[in-house]
Amino acid sequence: MSFLRRFTADDLFKFNNINLDPLTETYNISFYLGYLAQWPDYFVMAESCSGASMGYIMGKAEGDGELWHGHVTALTVAPEYRRMNLAKRLMDVLENVSEKVYNTYFVDLFVRASNSVAIGMYKGFGYTIYRTVLGYYSGPSDNENAYDMRKALPRDVKKKSIIPMKRPIKPEELEW
Amino acid sequence: MQAEVYQILDAIEAGKYKSALSQAAKALKKNKDSVLIKSMMAYATDRTGSPAVALQMCAELIAAKPAVVDDLALQLISSVLRYNKKYNDIATLYSNASQAMPLNLEYSTQYFMSLVRVNNLKLQQLHALKMQKQWKEYKYFFWAVSAIYLQGVEAPEGSPNIFFPLAEKMLEKAKDENQISTFEELYLYVLVLEAQKKYLGCVKLLSSELASRLCKVEAELQYLVLKYMHLAGQTDSVVDLSRDALRSAPDDWRMHLSLVESLHALLLEEHEDLSNVNVEESSDFIRALDFFLELQQEAKDKVKGPFLGQIELLFKFGLYERIQPCLVSYFNRFGTTISFFEDVRRYLDTVPVDSRLSLVSALNDHQIEFTNSSKDLIAACRKRINFYKVKFCFSELLTDGEKEEFTRVLIKEYETSLEMGKDLKATERQYGDDCLVIASLLILDRFDVSRETTLLYHAILLLETGLQKSTSNFQMKIMLVRLYTALGVSQPVVTHSLSLDVKQVLLDTLTYIYADDFERIAPLDVSSTLVKKALAIYNSNDKETPEMLIQAHKFGTYSKIPEFRKFQLRLSNSIQQAISIRQVALTTVLSLSVPNKFEELSTFLKGLDDQKFFLSDAQISALHDNRDRTMDIKWKAGGKSFFGILAAGEEFPAPRTDWIKIYGCVPLAVRTWIHGKSKAADAVDVDKVLQVLESVSDEGGLAVTTVVGLTKYFNKNDSSLLKKVVSSIEAHQANVKTSVSKVACNADLKRIHELFEAISYARIAGTVLAQDSTKNQPEVTEFIKQLGDIDGKFKQHISKLHGALNAQSVEDFQRDRLDSAESVPELVNSQTTRNVLSAALESYKAYLQSLF
Ligand SMILES: CC(C)(COP(=O)(O)OP(=O)(O)OC[C@H]1O[C@@H](n2cnc3c(N)ncnc32)[C@H](O)[C@@H]1OP(=O)(O)O)[C@@H](O)C(=O)NCCC(=O)NCCS
Question: N or C: which end of chain A has fewer CB within 10 A?
């Protein structure tokens, strides 16, 4: 059992059971507070009936003209609360905020090409692969492509934003 | 000059600070008064690693007349200042600039932001109002209101708060003049009303047309309205609103809670004394129950809310005997979801003791019997695990035989589950992991009674086995860290804690799990590395959070300003920070206690910040405890938690109030031996330090007795104290010699460490005395000689313990530690056993070795 609410700075002290998961990165203070300062309605926490943190989503709005869109920066659910539709509900909030508050044309996100669980899930939520970003996740021990997945919102009447790009792009070609 | 400036800038941008410096020095000869060149010099000087010189240059620039008003120069200077956390100086810098050019919006804004950085709320208020007058923008008006509101929040309790009414007045006016144009501005208004408990006002404001225009997410607004209705005691409205909300969102737990709580409040309003009311027949209850049943009828597959809501209703209304059948049907419906146990955990406590076993067997009747699809197999396994958790919750009622049988079942279940999970990714947990967790908890139940360390090894072996198949299960890692700590085995604590990848803000909340008292069981170099790690987050807080407060002002997110401020204070006044600072000092002092590191020790102690080490009682009790206790496992009804069993009756994490006092004062006391009484203005008087240490000497043991004795000797020159110090160390030494004949657990190492610590302090004193030719009285000579004897005996004892371990092969050690009447669970393979035992043996040896 759960409920969703705005993420608060205090939650940073109690999201351990989510962030100790290996697929969830823990960023610095500026990262979280920066999002909270600029997009407070895009950062949502799911809390359980016993007050535990279950998962959260963080996002932002960016882009120009018809590329004005909502972006999913992080979506994560603690291992013990998976497969309860939480990710779905969190994504619903983000899409709702994108549509109602920011009036964007579409929502997009990046996902590791190997994260088949997440890719399958996003497809189920109506996202399609718009393009591949080569070597987007690259670090000392890491070199992996990302899929840029998109879902059109009502403002994009002709669904132009999701027509897949034919060729893969390099990270430096990204608009943002 | 222009060309020269560009050249220097290019060098700075390219990171060639040395070359920038020499170019700037040259350029300055020709342009003696150029503040730009001077500020570039300051910047480059700072980056080449001479912050003190750079800050001196900045100080001159700040004091310059006329004030610096060059954009680039200002940026460079403030960057140096920010880097060195001289936030007040940045405020002065921009205050001067904006006074020199009052029409410059940039300087004015920078001045305001620099006030935000230092949290000078009064000046923020005044300056923002000035800005609003000047530039007629309402943004500045809200900055001012926000600063006023925060002054209210931070005002000392008890005194009349003039800030909230003032803020309210201003916001009311803004609203009347239609100047509230964002939801955050409206939210600020709500916060101001809330601070004055004007909840009805909040409801009114949030229900206004303005609110629905500004808040685009309906659910968000609805929640806020409900919250304040609740606080305003508008119980009827809350009931209506939450019912409505539940019809469209039946899984929103908050709505269930607010409905049930309000109904209960209504009942209380109607009846003064509930004891003679037949709750079940009250109309509110009946209506509520009907409502839940109705929702249940309509509920889609995965929707739990109406079912759990019903249980919550029974719980709140005290109808415990009706909860049981609901639990059974909830299990029947949702027993396959991982969170089942957490959903019902708090209701399990209400089940009367004599019904618990029948509940367990009723649940058992609802298992999934036969399946063949893999999906169903997994579901069936999950359901059984939920059942095991409930059974464990009531395990106080099981006999020893039943517990053993239960453990066997759990291990069998785990083994079967591995087959289902063979294709799971390394980042996922195996389906049966919790079986091993419960099995180890059952072993620990027995440990709680017998305190047999063999049992700790058994639990470790099970969890290590589990971790091999489920390499990222952090719960197992945390359990292992605590179990190894209980044994006093340090190496795996390091390995597992590193693999938890604790960083950033997690350092504040989780460090305690592996670092508390770690210096007592690990070689000093190992423990000091581990404990130092935590300090990074407090440094980040100092640097990053003020900038984020500035961002919140920039984006007008007023609701986040008090939130960020609270966050900042929770970190800057955190218990963990106080602990970590002291642990770092402790391990540093101990590792520098040998004569050939005396100079280093002396420098280190000189640099201590008294304000951080000497905290008053009031300061200590105001520290924030952010340590995340949810990492503990509390699955048993009424029983001890996982941490509780290992802590043997003590609290874990401990409050550490006395510890914070002791290890704040010890280094300050030792400092006086070397440097005498400090003359610095903010230095703490040695008498005060002694007073604190004496007040906690019971808790502090030998280390404190030793430090107190020696400090008095150095400051009061009472030479009889040296003798006393020696005899108390000798007494402890004799005691350790008889009580620790073999290293088997944390407590053994702790005793040795206490002795080691005291000897280290005495050794420092010995070094100070040996260097001071004025102190060659017979007592001193005698002290130094006796110290030598003590040290010799200590090393002898340690070497005996070490020798005994060194003579053992891993197999010998294993036989010694593990072979008892009980055999290791079959699941564990011999290689795992060997690895664990070998790690223990090596850790003990390394620790003892480090004491030489
Ligand atoms: C990916 C993740 C967020 C999913 O969270 P969740 O709350 O379990 O997802 P939901 O319950 O809302 O799942 C919605 C649908 O996605 C699919 N799905 C989710 N997890 C799945 C899994 N492990 N295997 C197969 N399908 C899965 C299913 O179709 C599911 O619907 P269903 O349960 O009715 O079959 C979670 O697994 C997670 O936090 N992973 C680690 C972090 C991560 O990878 N984030 C994504 C980065 S972009």
Answer: C
Q: Count CB-CB contacts under 10 A for residue B354.
A: 8
Q: Which B residues 210-269 touch A at CB under 8 Å?
A: 216-217, 219-220, 223, 251-257
Q: What is the Cα–Cα distance from B112 to A62, expressed in whole angstroms?
A: 28
Residue A65, pLDDT > 70, answer yes
Contact B346 A50 (CB under 8 A): yes
- B506 at interface of A, judged by CB pairs closer than 8 A: yes
Q: Is the CB of A88 under 6 A from ligand 1?
A: yes
Work out the angle at residue B153's Cα, subtended by the Cα atoms of residues B152 and B156, and round it to the nearest 5 degrees: 80
Cβ atoms of B567 and B509 closer than 8 Å: no
CB environment B268-281: b (16+ within 10 A), e (fewer): eeeeeeeeeeebee
The predicted pLDDT at position B1 comes to 66
Asked whether the bond before B595 is cis by omega within 30 degrees of 0, the reply is: no
Residues B106-153 have pLDDT tens digits of: 999 999 999 999 999 999 999 999 999 999 999 999 999 999 999 999
Average pLDDT over residues B311-337: 95
With a 6 A CB cut-off, is A153 part of the ligand 1 pocket?
A: no
Tell me how far apart the alpha carbons of residues B234 and B206 are, in angstroms, rounded to a whole number.
14
Counting DSSP H helices and E strands in chain A, the numbers are 4, 7
- Average pLDDT of chain B, as a whole number: 94
Q: Mean of the pLDDT values across residues B701-712? A: 95
> CA–CA separation, B404 vs B349, rounded Å?
24
The b/e string for B9-36 (b: 16+ C-beta within 10 A; e otherwise) is bebbeeeebebbbebbeebbeeeeebbb
Domain A2-173 classification at class level? alpha beta
| Residues forming beta bridges with residue A60, ordered by sequence position | A71
Residues making up chain B, counted from first to last: 852
Query: Is pLDDT of B502 > 70?
Result: yes
Q: Summarize pLDDT for B273-308 with one digit per residue, the tens.
A: 878 888 898 888 999 999 999 999 999 888 999 999
Cα B382 to Cα B388: distance, rounded to the nearest angstrom:
10
> In the Cβ-directed half-sphere of A115, how many Cα atoms lie within 13 Å?
22
The residues near B716 (Cβ < 8 Å, ≥ 6 apart) are none
Over its C-alpha atoms, chain B yields an Rg (Å, rounded) of 33
Number of helices (H) and strands (E) in chain B: give both, helices first.
44, 0
Q: Give the H/E segment covering residue B253.
A: helix B253-270
The ipTM value here is 0.95
Q: Where are the domains of chain B?
A: 2-174, 576-807
Count CB neighbours of B6 within 10 A. 10
Cβ–Cβ < 8 Å for B307, B330: yes
**Closest to B350 measured CA to CA, from B311, B382, B376:** B311
B2-174 has which CATH code?
1.25.40.10
A125-156 pLDDT, tens digit per residue, is 999 999 999 999 988 878 899 999 999 999 99
pLDDT value, residue B613: 97
Q: Whose CA is nearest to atom 22 of ligand 1?
A: A117
Q: How far apart are CA B782 and CA B729, in angstroms?
A: 15
H helix runs in B807-829, sequence order: 810-818
Q: Could you give the strand order of the β-sheet that contains A53-62, starting from the edge strand earlier in sequence? A: A2-6, A43-48, A53-62, A69-77, A106-112, A142-152, A128-139
Residue A129, strand partner residues: A149
B-proximal residues of A, 119-138, CB under 8 Å: none
Answer whether B339 touches A (CB < 8 Å).
yes
